[in-house]
Amino acid sequence: MTEHMSLSEGAARVRRGPIKIVDTSIRDGNQSLWGVAGITTGMVEAMGPIYERMGLAALDFTSSTHLNMGVKFHGENPWERIARMRAAAPNLHLSCITTGMRFMSWEKADESVFRMSLRVMARHGLSRLMIAEPMNDIEQTIKVAEWAKQEGLAQVMAGVVFTESPVHTDEKYRAATRAYNASEFIDTVYLKDPGGLLTAERTRELIPMMRAELPNKTLELHSHCTTGAAPHLYLVAAELGVDVLHTGLGPLSNGTAQPSLENLLTNLDTLGIEVDIDREAVAEGAALLHEFAKAQGLAPGAPHEYDLSFHQHQVPGGMMGTMKRQLAEIGMSDALPAVIAEAGRVRADLGYPIMVTPFSQFVGSQALMNVLAEKSGQKRYSRIPDEVLKFVLGHFGTPEGPISPEVLEKVAALPRTAEFSVPKVERTLAELHAEYAAKFGRDLTEEEMLLRIVMPEDQAEIAINAAPAPAWTGSRSARKTSSGSVTSVASFIEAANALPNWKHLNVNFNGESIRLNRTNP
């Protein structure tokens, strides 16, 4: 009989079957490592049959942000992406993550708009909703779960969102787990760690507690490798009874994304823990993702050394990738350390919001503004974005911790505060149909109306009028010199055509940087 090592001394294994896997590569991996822009409809479609063969519990497929970025960066129709992936993987649970009441906007959506988004996504092939309510609002989570079931989504997973702060306690996590176990609208529960803040010690405390509160429901774990701890704590969680682990493949693992499935399989084999996965399909999927990376010159995720600084600022993996891209776009990449440090201070000032969408973006935006203000000789909070103002005013729920008196004073003095204090009047579905039919002189489908409600007019037009997205046909190499630079107009055109529906190109020519913008990709 083979002896296997254990990472949890004295802990009885409570496995209820082989570990199942949720792949996060094309949603969270793409966001954490490639700034959301690295995956096209043709690429996800090419991965579909491979994912189908892998035997996944589900695919972490999309979010409203990803659907929006598909329009912005690739000129694609978001409903086409869902439908084509469903056709490519007809039996796979395709998941969308939501923070509760928003769709393609930081603003909380009207119930009629949010339910419409659930209905449209389900109609085109999504079958699973992951709810990561950023204030761990139990009532709101269960309400959204009920709507999801009513609008056609087959499976709902509720998140117990982990963070570290003086106001977030294990009793709160226990209460949420217990409530989700009791809800008829929630099928599975996951411990979601957006900042990669879990440690092996905290995992040993939380997983057994949650496992005990979920006697008949599936328990999943989603963390990030941001601090370097996730590959280890996944093994600890597997020993302690977690049912499903969220992992990435190939270039879309490690870094600030999820642990590598390939490495996890080797380690679970060493521990003697069975995994229900097709390993040949895993290798095939990783190889194809490497092709996508090579074709676009995108860097793969790399393992991180253990870094405790993230426990101070708590910037999550997805936001870190987005922040790097945004700073690069304005020529301020060197300001990243200052913005990250300021993000930790802003979070404390705002009452320790959990650093998950959209609150992480609010904190990041305010941190960037504060850094820019101080660089120009102004004080912190000399500018406050509308989203932060609305957060302080309670538009997104009651902040879990006290807000800094300095921030409250600044907000009270802003003229916009009175404007945003007026209660919002929600529109019914019938009112929306009537409003947009009058505006466009015809009845709109829900697909078109939803895009026109939540997107700027120019982007909505691109999405609605988009030609079918090109299928992935393999990497096409432009004629290049050994340095990787194009050398003629012809080779530039060939290289540009090899890119999937580009919208912006940055060109370096004779020492000058030129940005090309394409209005109709």
Walk me through what this model shows.
With about 525 residues, the protein is of the alpha/beta class. It is globular. The model is unreliable at about 475-485 (pLDDT under 50). The chain has helices at about 25-35, 40-55, 65-75, 80-90, 110-125, 140-150, 170-180, 200-215, 230-240, 260-270, 280-295, 310-315, 315-330, 335-350, 360-375, 385-390, 405-415, 415-420, 430-440, 445-455, 455-465, 490-495, and strands at about 20-25, 60-65, 95-100, 130, 155-160, 190, 220, 245, 505-510, 510-515. The strands form two sheets. An eight-stranded parallel beta barrel has the order 1-2-3-4-5-6-7-8, surrounded by six helices. It has a two-stranded antiparallel ribbon with strand order 9-10. It is about 45% helix and about 10% strand. It contains 22 helices and ten strands. Strand 9 and strand 10 form a beta hairpin.
